[in-house]
Amino acid sequence: MSTLQFVFGASGSGKTEFCIRKALEEAGKDLNHNVYYLVPEQDTLAMQKRIVMHEKNKGKGILNLDVLSFQRLYYASFSHVNKKVPKSLDEMGKIMVLSLVAEKLNHSSSLQYFRGELEHLGFLEECKSLISECMQYDISPTDLSDAAEKTEKKLSRMKMQDIALLYEGFLQWLSEHRKFTEEGIAGLALEQIVEDPSLENATFILDGFTGFTPSQLHCLELLFERKNSILISLEIRSREEGNLYDKHDSSSLFYLTKDAVESVEGLAHQLNVKLLPAVNLNLFDSISGEKREAGVPYPRFRDIPVLQKICDDFATGKSFSSVEQGILLREAPDIQREVEDAGAYIHHLVKDKGYRYRDISVIIPDIESYRDILFSRWKDLQIPFFLEEDIQLFDSPYGKVIRSALLLTEKDFLFDSVFRYLRSFPYRGKEAESLLDEWENIARARGLKGKKAFQSLLDIPAVVKDGTAGGESVREKKSTVGEDSTDDKDSTDDKEQTEDKEQTDDKDLTSVKEMNVLKEQYSVEIKVLCQDLEFLFHFYEENADASLLKERMDCLFRLLQNTDLAERVEESLSFLDAEGMENRRESYHRSIEEIHEIMDRMRESLGEIPVSKKSFALLFDLAFSVEKLRQIPATLDQLVVGDLRRSRFHNPKAFLFLGLNSEFLPAPPGSKNILSEKEREFLRDKGYRLSPLAWEEGYIEKYYVYKAFLTPSQELYLSYPRALRDGKSGKPSSYILELKELFPWLKASYSLKEKREIYNEKKAREELARELPAMCKKRIFQEKLELEHRFKTEAFSLLHYLWNKEEYREKVEKLLDALFFENRKEALSTELSKALYGETIKGSVTRMELFTACPFAHFLQYGLKLKERKTKEVQAFDIGNLYHKMVELFFKRMLKSGNDAEFFGEKMEKILKEVIEESMLDPQFAVFQEGGRNQYLLRKLSQNGKRILWALGKQLLAGDLRPKAIEQDFYFEEDGLSLRGRIDRVDSFLTEDQKTLFLKVLDYKSGKKDFSLKRLFAGLDLQLPLYMDYVLREEGKKHKDMEILPSAMFYFTMDNPALPYDPEKDAEKERLKALKPKGLVNISEESLSHLEKLDAGESLCLPVQVKNGAVEEKGAAVSKEKFDALLSYAKKKMREEHRRIKAGEKDIFPMEEGNEQTACSYCPYHSICGFDENIPNFRYRRLEDKTEEEFWTEILKDAEVKMKEEGKTGAKAEQDSEAKQETEAKKKATRKGDE
C-alpha cells in the first residue's frame, strides 16, 4: 500500500533540511531501494550540489538517490523501459501548425469571430498559449464546444467555438503527422510510469512546490497506485495550521498550500492511500526532532530575528514597537540612484563585512525598467552579477543578421533594410564603421533602392541565373533624380533653395566621385563590404527561385556559411569580457548553436511545406520571439539578480529587494487577450478550470513577496524609487506600508541626505562633477589656480587626488573648463573671415536674415559649410518648390497668351494639369513620382494648387495691375557684397497719360508668413523691401521720363486652409479672406484704385480696412513717404549686417520673437552650439517692444537723416565739380598762352 505524508512548516523552519536528511536516510538503508527527490526544474542543479555536499552524506554520492523535476522524471521513465523519447514540437512549431490550421479553416469559412486575426503574429502566439493551457489543465476541444453552447452571450459563444475548431484542428494535425507537444509527451510518459519497475516500491520526496498542475497530479495518482511512499513538503505558518483543512478562499495568504493539500489528499482518499501523520516543523526542530522553545527563531532567522516576526505576523494587523536590527529601508529619488545605493551597500557587505558576492541575492519585480541601468552602474562599480532572464534569440548578434537578411529580401532592397543588414554584422572596426557612415550618406542622398541600384553604386558584378557572378560591372548612369539639398535652409524660402540647387553638380556624378574617393581611402574595408553584399545578392536570387521551406532554408545556410558569420560573431564577443558581461557572452555563444538547431528542426518537420518569402521571414520572427535562451552563470562568485516568481535563491546571507514602488508592486494585471476574465470565470463555473484569474494572481503575488522578505539569513535591504524612468512620480508599494504597520519604527533613509560611497576613480570623477558646481555657488574659490591648495572639503580632496594622478589630469582639466565655461563674444580675425567668406560676401537676402537671427548659425552654414544629411525624400521645401513651379508656369503661359480672364475661368483646371505634367519633367520633382505615397501627395498638392490659383486670379482680376515679369532676377552689388535672388512676380499698371507706372511685388511662401515692422526693424524681414527697391530702380533706369511708384508688396501664402463651417457666411468670401496676402499697401487714392475697387468695410484682396469710403492709414496701409522710408531703412540694415559679417562676428546670440518662437526653434545646429540659458552669458536677443507709431517715427527719422547726408554730399560734389572745371579752364588758357 502506498503512503502519503506531509511536512508542514513556515519559511526558514528547515523543511528542505528535513527532506534531505530523510532522503539520505532512506537511500542509506538499502542501495536497491530507489529514492526520488523531486523539485521544480530550476532547483535541480542546486539541490544535487546541496545533497552531495551534505554533512550526512558520508560517501558524497547519490547512487540510488535521483534529484529530478517532473519533466525529467517523464523523460527518465522512457529510458527505464528502453524506449526512445519522441521529438517534441517546439513553441515555434506549434505556432506554425496553428497558422496552417487557421489558414485551412479560413478558406472553408468555418471561423466566425477570429477570421480577421489569423495573419497576426500576436494572435497566433496567444492562441498557442491558450491551447497549451487547455492541454495542461486537461480541457479538450469537446469541453470548449460544450461550454460554448451553455453561454448566452453570442460573441463569447462564437469565440469559444472558434477556439475549439482551432484546438481540434491542431490535435488532428499532430495525430496525422505523428508529432507530439511537450504536454503530449508528458501524457505518453505517464503511460511509461505504469510500466517502469524502478518507480514501484520507491520513496518520492517532493520539496519546493507551491502547488501542482493537473498533469502533475495525474503523475502522483499513478505513483500512488504503485505502492510508493510519498512525502510532500509545503509551506504554512503556525497561525494558519488550524484552518488548513477547512474550506478556503483565494484571498488567503497560503491559498496555494491549502489548494495543494486539498488536491493531493483528495487523490489519496480516492485510491485508499494510507495518510501518515504530518510532520509539523513549526513545532519541532528539523534536525533534532525536539520541540521548539517558544520565542526561539527558526534556524534561518537566528542571526536576524526580526524576520521571525514577519514570518509569523505579516499581513495580520499586528505590530511591534521595539526597534530591531536586520532590515534597512531606503528611498531613492530615481531608479539610477536606487541602483547606485544598492551597489554601494553591496560594496559595504563585501569589503567591510567579508561577504562573497555569491552570498548576496537581488530581486527586482520589473527587470525591464532596471536592466540597462544595472549593466551601466554596476559595471562601473565592478560588481559581478548574473541577471537571471531569458535572452530572445533575435537580440543575439547571429539572430539579428538572419532577420535583417530575410527582411531585406522580403522588402526588395529598400534603403533602410540594406543598411540594417550591413550594420547588423558584428563590429567591423572603426574604419569600416566610418566607411558605412560615409556610404550611407551617399546612398541616402541618391535615394537608392532596389538590388540593381546598390550593385551599380559598388560596382558589384550582376548575379546571373545560375547563382554566379558574371558579366561586366554595371556602371553608374546619369539619372534624372532630384538635385542636392541647398545651402539655404530657410523653410519659408523654398524658391531660393531651388536657385541654390540649380547651381550644384549632377547628384549621380557627384556620388560616383565620392564613392571613388571612399574606395581609395577604405580599400580593404570596402572589399569586405562588397563581398558581404555580393553573397546577399546570391541569396536573394536563389531565394526568389525557391518554393519549399527546405529550399529556402538551404539558401540561408549557404549565406551564413559564405559570410563566415558564426566565426565573425565568435571573434566579436571578446569585448563583452572586457565589459564585465561574461554571462551575456556565453549566452550569445550558445545562441549560434541554438539557432542552428531551430533551423534544422524547421527543415526536418516543415521542410516539404511551400512557403513564400514573406511567410519564411515570418517563421523566423515566430521562432525567435518564442524560443528563448536561458543564461548560465559564467562564474560561481557572483550575485544573482532575479525576478519575483521564477527565480530561486538558495540561502543567501544578504537579500536586496529593489523596485518596491506602487507602479511595480502590486503588479498591474496581465492581459489574457483571447479569453476575457469573465469568460474564464464562466468556464470555471462550468467545471473547466484554467490558470488563476487576474484577481487571484494579486493574492498569489502577495505570497511570493512574503516569501521574498524571508529569504536572507543575515541582512534584508528594501528600497524604492520616488521617480520612474518616464519621470512619473510613484509611491512606496502597499507591501512597504504593511511592513511599516508591522514595525512602526521602520523608517526610510533618504539617499540624497547621505554621503555617497566612493570606491574607484570613476566614481570619484562623478562625485567631483556633482560637487564642484555647488561649491562654486558658495564662492569657496574664485580661480582654478587655487584648487590645488584647498582641501577643506571632500570635493577638494577628490580634486587633489585626481589632479595628482597623471592619467586623470586631462579629464579634470576638461571638467574645470566645463565648470567655468562662459559664452564669450569672440569674433573671427579679418584674415580668417576673408578665408572663410571670401573678399565678397555672396548669397541671398535669406543669408542676411539668417545672420540677424543668429550670427553663429550663419557662421556654421556659410563659414564652416555644415549641412544636414542629404536625403532623397519629399521635404517641406520640395512641396514649396513644386507650388512655385506650378504658379510660375501657369502665369508664364498667361503672360504669353495675354488673356487673363480665360486662364482663370473654365480652362484653369486643364491648364493646371498641363502645368503639373510639365513640372514633372524637371528632375528635382522626380521624387513625387516614386512610390504610391508620393504620388498620392502629388494629387493632394494638385488640388491645393487649384485653390491657390483661384485665389491669385481673384486678387489679380480685382484690380488693374497685370503681371509684368515672372521669376525676375534680383541683383544687389556693392563694395564687398553681392546678393542674388528671384522675385516671384512683378505686376504693373501704366496710367493713360503714360506718365506714371505703378508696381507691385509678390513673393510666394509655402509656410505661413506675415510682414512685421518689428521684424524688419531688427533686420529679419528685408526680402520684400529690397525686392521692391530693386524693381523701382530698374524700372526707373528704363523709364527716366516716368514717375515710378510702389503700389504694394506682398507675401502670399500658398495654402488651402480648412475653414470652420458657417452656413450664414459666404464660403468663397471667407476663403478669399483667409488667403489674403500680407505686406504693405500704398494708400494714395490713385494707387489703391488700381489695386482693387474698394467698398466700405474689409477688403477681400488687400490687408486694409475701408472706413467712410477711405482707407485708414494703419497696419499694412501706409503713405508714399513711409513706403520710401521703409525701403531706405531695409538697405541700411542690410549694409549693417554686411559690415558685421565682414568683421567676423559669430556670437551665439539667437533672436527670440515671442510666442515661444526663436531662432533655435527649427535650427539644425542646436546640438553644436549647446545654447542653454542656464549657462552664464547665454541669452536670447529679443525684438524691440515698440508701438507701430514708434517704429515709424524711427524709420522716418532715419530717412530724414539720410536725406540730409545725401544733400550735403550732393552739394559738396557740385562744388568739387565746379572747382575741377575752373582748374581745367585755367590749364587750357595757360597752354594757349604757351603756344
Protein model, in words:
This protein is α/β, with parallel strands linked by helices. The protein is 50% helix and 12% strand. It folds into six domains: 3-86 and 184-290, Rossmann fold (3-Layer(aba) Sandwich), CATH 3.40.50.300; 91-179, no CATH class; 322-389 and 636-753, P-loop containing nucleotide triphosphate hydrolases (Rossmann fold, 3-Layer(aba) Sandwich), CATH 3.40.50; 392-486 and 498-630; 761-819, no CATH class; 958-1185, no CATH class. Helix 4 packs across helix 7 (154-177) and helix 16 (430-446) packs antiparallel against helix 19. The radius of gyration is 42 Å and the shape is elongated. Residues 460-509, 777-792 and 1209-1215 have low confidence and may be disordered. Residues 488-508 have a biased composition (Basic and acidic residues). Residues 471-508, 1205-1235 are annotated as: Disordered. Residues 844-1169 form the PD-(D/E)XK endonuclease-like domain. Keywords: ATP-binding, DNA damage, DNA repair, DNA-binding, Exonuclease, Helicase, Hydrolase, Nuclease, Nucleotide-binding.
